[in-house]
Amino acid sequence: MADEEFMIDTDDLTRRMDGAMSALKTEFASLRTGRASASMLEPVMVEAYGQKTPINQVGTVNVPEPRMVTVNVWDKSMVQAVEKAIMNSGLGINPQTNGTIVMLPIPELNEERRRDLTRVAAQYAEHARVSVRNIRRDGMDQIKKAKNDGMSEDDQKIWESEVQDLTDKYIKAVDAALEHKQEEIMQV
């Protein structure tokens, strides 16, 4: 039993940390930087047919020009719900309706709004860091369980070091992504 090999599933930890990074990238894509982007509407959920539905499932999102996003709503009865969802989304955009097309003119960002967006980006990054640390804790719990099942102290230290290195790598990646996004937001 003493020479039994204990393996910690670092592939699972890596996959889960990759998931935290991809969630962060999606959240960052929703922050507008003064340029129109269809991805800025991804987090917007519309109250449609009795449930919350992503906006891209009730209409086609287009970017016809650099400072305009349009949503061509498929069901005429959903236009009001789409407008309401956009207004309540916190994007700071006032929709204009033309039949079934909801137009979103993207205003130039002022300094105060840019600072607000950098704070929101920092909050998103902190959520990602917390997710990565929770995954690290799960890995450390696996190691403790293996230690109780007979893993040697040397192996325990090696695995703990590997999990910590993985965590540090992802925390650095979150910080780098945040720095890049904040520079992008503050760019005039």
Automatic annotation (TrEMBL):
CDD domains, per database record: RRF
Gene Ontology MF annotations: ribosomal large subunit binding
Span of domain Ribosome recycling factor: 24-186
Any one GO BP annotation for this protein: cytoplasmic translational termination
Coiled coil region boundaries: none
Protein's UniProt keywords contain Cytoplasm: yes
HAMAP family attached to this UniProt entry: RRF (MF_00040)
Name of protein: Ribosome-recycling factor
Organism listed in the record: Litorivita pollutaquae
The gene coding this protein: frr
